[in-house]
Amino acid sequence: MTDQLHNRHKAVLPDWLALYYGRPIEITHGEGRHVWDAEGRKYLDFFGGILTTMTAHALPEVTKAVAEQAGRIIHSSTLYLNRPMVELAERIAALSGIPDARVFFTTSGTEANDTALLLATAYRGSNQILAMRNSYHGRSFTTVGITGNKGWSPTSLSPLQTLYVHGGVRSRGPYAHLADAEFIAACVADLEDLLGHTRDVAALIAEPIQGVGGFTAPPDGLYAAFREVLDRHGILWVSDEVQTGWGRTGDHFWGWQAHASSGPPDMLTFAKGIGNGMSIGGVVARAEVMNCLDANSISTFGGSPVTMSAGLANLTYLLEHDLQGNARRVGGLLTERLRAIAAQSPFVREVRGRGLMIGIELVKPGTDEANPAAAAAVLEAAREGGLLIGKGGGHDTSVLRIAPPLTLTVAEAEEGAAVLENALRTVC
Ligand code: PMP
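# 4'-deoxy-4'-aminopyridoxal-5'-phosphate complex -> structure
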């Protein structure tokens, strides 16, 4: 059955739509932190939290909100008053930390970043964008054009002029040997130097912790230091919170808050998890920036009452159940446990991350060389053991990515860690 579906998939979908696993999985249903495949196998899901399902699979509160709204009306949104959209926008604006914030809803993170680029370029009258090396921002023509991770950027024919800045990756690159303060100083000097060779840059866009790039983060305070330079040049700061938003990092609700002395960014973009699987994306911006367009811009499906109802129910649940605190507590325990496991393996270079966003970087033993073959083998072995994880990284996909739904329990964290321990031991 699954093999037949795989053949049909290959026949009709693009070749570049890569699937996980030699024998890809057809997921048919889920509950809590678990999913089941078409063959009836149950998996603990350590990746779905970032793929889409931030809170829990089949969360009854979200299911009920979606069903009730779908039973009332499913309609295009932006041309008429839409209560769930206004209510969710009010709540996100208040949570964003951005003063006088306005929210524009899209249906994906790509579109959210596209909108942020539209706003930044219009506001500044410039098509020059600063982005980070090894970043990922989506797959539209403009967002692949600013994506610094070239494994995820299939064309260089961008309408934007992009300049790539050092700093997103802490443990590799020319400044990796420096202590945190010197690392920041070197990145700031690099940015200043870059700006000395250009004029009228529109914005810097950055993920506070790079997601697809392998869950790698700069030292806290980098963006505060960047902010001072950007302000001097009038350049906007856009924080791409598609993976780091909504409390996943445990210590903070938004990733930018790890750089809090800088104050909020001019814009932040969000997507993925807020709909707990429903397609929501969006931009929050200062009113002055949001309102700079002088022609209509609408989104037919951004702000759909059904997805907005899912977002409202999901946001209420995650705040009422302090899932940010859960990410901090359970994520902390899981990281500690994974570090203990890693200490036994010559293949693990680093276990890093924050909250429930944890990366395990694999190398060839005794070297610093990325080991994508080992990462692929651990991914398969974990699946055999009933655990779904992700992978990512720079040019070589050698980082295992762990991002479970935010309701993960301590027992489930232990269970998943045991599978990973076994997978690492058997394949590495
Ligand atoms: N920004 C970041 C940081 C992401 O990780 C992603 C998705 N992986 C996107 C943007 C694009 O989001 P979407 O897939 O919803 O278009």
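# post-check
The CA atoms of residues 74 and 306 lie 6 Å apart.
The chain has 13 helices and 15 strands.
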